[in-house]
Design a protein that fits this description.
mainly beta, seven-stranded mixed sheet
């Protein structure tokens, strides 16, 4: 089989639909409940190397008969997606899974909506049935003043764009992070870490930033100004092992736009500060949020959904963090409307932004950092990197890109950022289409959104978007496929070798496709990819009676696939698959 993937647009179905789903419910109504599905479908498994969904009718036909409502568009899309096309009927809430010591999966609870109440918690297996373990929003109220409490009770979280997964440490304590808006106009943001010692049944809360007692964690020296982070990420497993300690946090605080980028998209030229916040346990086992550590004054935004690769790793008393650093020396020329003109890389691969890696030593409190890779286009937030660590301590970093070349490098000494291998392109295969920001020095390129994990045998697994052209798939200039590629350190040549990439999922239409994918691993070293995609065109784009655009959410039709053989073959994950994978 091959792959053509359903496209689901970047904007969310409105908050009104989410409110309707939880209509009339208060936090006190959320209690553990079991769901027994009449259809434990997808037990008839289909294994594949490449998945191909049905192709949509031609764009001309779609334009001639435009959709008039979200419901009409939703009904039209359904046959072109995994659930109907492959008779895949999961009864779990599809999202990126995490796994406890018994290899039980945990999904952020949703009803195929990307904007959900913060109290919705997680869904997992108990005694063979899906059980919902919510949070109690009342636990959060003491952290806020009276004015903010009603807002907190009705707060929602966008689980497409926020890191929403569960994280387990080696004591089987479970963690997740809530981002909460504390004003009517959503101007101010606060962060709370939820944790559970009984795998989701009971929860406690640790205020991190922006609450009554943590309002000035990021106070500007010499002033009363206390800015709050706009974006965050949390430490999570990069392989099958749980974390050794509570997950650390990463925060981005925007300082605005670089010169020349003032009038363009937020993902171009936004610059700010990047902080690491370790979370520790005191002698009583209570969680403590430590003072944030400044890593960069010129970081670009953290882009969780740009592949969602791990950015924080802990080894012993050291943290290793990777990020996209802004190029402050580059000032773009402007077009007639005042928008920046971003040049293609020249024969020296200029201009570019850099991927940095920092080493923070908990014992000495010292930060050591180094520029490791280049990324293109310059000052583009899509270029998010990822980092993993081999079992013997070598760090492997991959740069992101936005229709350009991914590059990679590995550390030459265990658990150290001081020496690195030469930067190498990850995939130079000719795919029939080379986008503008691919390097002129190499063939191939046209890659975006890196996802990565590392297996028990030190194989690095990656998934990303690849621009391609193939008349046998679509008779059009290009399309965006989701591809899988792995690599491993070769001891004979003493170098890291990337294997040939393979299409994992073909889109169900040509031209622009925006993939949303997240990788994870269970305790048995199985690889999971939760994925969906969007297109800013019909049938995912619908215009209302006033001509205003509405979009189908990617969460309506996201899917989950798994490989049990290190990426050789894959299958859509059934309820039975997850039940059988548990250990006693």
């Amino acid at each position: 089989m091959n792959v053509s993937k359903a496209r689901y647009t970047v904007a969310s179905i409105g908050v009104a639909l989410v409110i309707g789903y939880f209509s009339g419910k208060k936090y006190s109504d959320f209690s553990p409940r079991k769901t027994v599905s009449e259809d434990l479908a997808s037990s008839s498994r289909i294994e594949f190397e490449t998945l191909k969904l049905r192709a949509f009718p031609s764009p001309d036909k779609l334009e001639k008969k435009p959709m008039r409502s979200l419901k009409e568009a939703t009904d039209f899309i359904a046959p072109y997606h995994e659930r109907q096309d492959f008779k895949w009927h999961p009864s779990y809430a599809v999202s990126s899974p995490s796994f406890d010591s018994k290899n039980r999966p945990y999904f952020r609870y949703n009803d195929r909506q990307q904007t959900v109440p913060v109290a919705n918690g997680f869904q997992t297996l108990r005694d063979g049935s899906w059980t919902h373990f919510p949070f109690m929003a009342s636990q959060l109220l003491p952290f806020y003043d009276q004015k903010a409490q009603d807002i907190i009770l009705n707060s929602v979280q966008d689980i497409l764009w926020d890191p929403k997964m569960a994280v387990f440490d080696n004591s089987d304590r479970m963690y997740t992070v809530l981002r909460l808006k504390t004003t009517v106009f959503n101007k101010d943001t606060s962060y709370v870490m939820m944790y559970s010692d009984d795998q989701g049944l009971n929860w406690a809360a640790l205020p991190l930033v922006g609450t009554k007692d943590t309002a000035c964690v990021f106070r500007v020296l010499g002033t009363n100004n206390c800015p709050l982070p706009q974006l965050y990420d949390l430490e999570r497993p990069y392989n099958r092992a749980p974390l050794s300690r509570p997950p650390a946090m990463l925060y981005f605080l925007s300082d605005g736009k670089l010169p020349g980028f003032e009038k363009t998209y937020s993902w171009l030229g936004t610059v700010g500060k990047l902080y690491l916040q370790p979370i520790s346990k005191n002698s009583q086992g209570k969680l403590v949020a430590e003072k944030p550590v400044l890593l960069s004054l010129s970081a670009q935004e953290i882009g969780y959904r740009s592949g969602s690769s791990p950015k924080i790793i802990r080894s012993g008393s050291k943290y290793f963090v990777t990020w996209l650093e802004a190029n402050r020396d580059f000032v773009p020329k402007l077009d007639q409307k005042g928008n920046p003109i971003i040049p293609k890389p020249d024969q020296n691969n200029r201009p570019y932004s850099e991927i940095w890696v920092a080493e923070y030593d908990l014992k000495t409190k010292r930060v050591t950092k180094k520029a490791v890779l280049k990324s293109w286009p310059v000052n583009d937030t899509h270029n998010q990197p990822g980092i993993v660590r081999t079992w013997d301590g070598n760090l492997i970093v991959v740069s992101g890109g936005h229709g350009s070349h991914f590059t990679s490098a590995y550390s030459l000494k265990p658990d150290s950022v001081l020496e690195w291998s030469k930067e190498e392109p990850m995939n130079t295969a000719d795919t029939g289409y080379k986008s503008n920001y691919s390097s002129p020095l190499w063939t191939g390129g046209s890659q975006t959104y890196i996802s990565m994990m590392i297996g028990a045998d030190d194989t690095v697994h990656t998934v990303y978007r690849q621009w391609m052209h193939d008349k046998n798939i679509f008779d059009f200039e290009y399309f965006g496929a989701l591809v899988y590629q792995n690599g491993k350190f070769d001891r004979k040549s003493n170098s890291f070798q990337w294997n040939k990439a393979r299409v994992l999922v073909y889109p169900n239409a040509p031209e622009y496709t925006h993939w949303y994918q997240v990788m994870s691993m269970d305790r048995k070293d199985n690889i999971y990819v939760e994925y969906s995609n969007m297109r800013p065109y019909p049938p995912y784009l619908v215009k209302d009676a006033k001509g205003q655009p509405e979009f189908i959410s990617p969460y309506l039709n996201n899917a989950l696939m798994r490989s049990e053989n290190s990426g050789k073959t894959w299958s859509l994950v059934s309820d039975d698959d997850l039940k059988k994978a548990q250990t006693k």
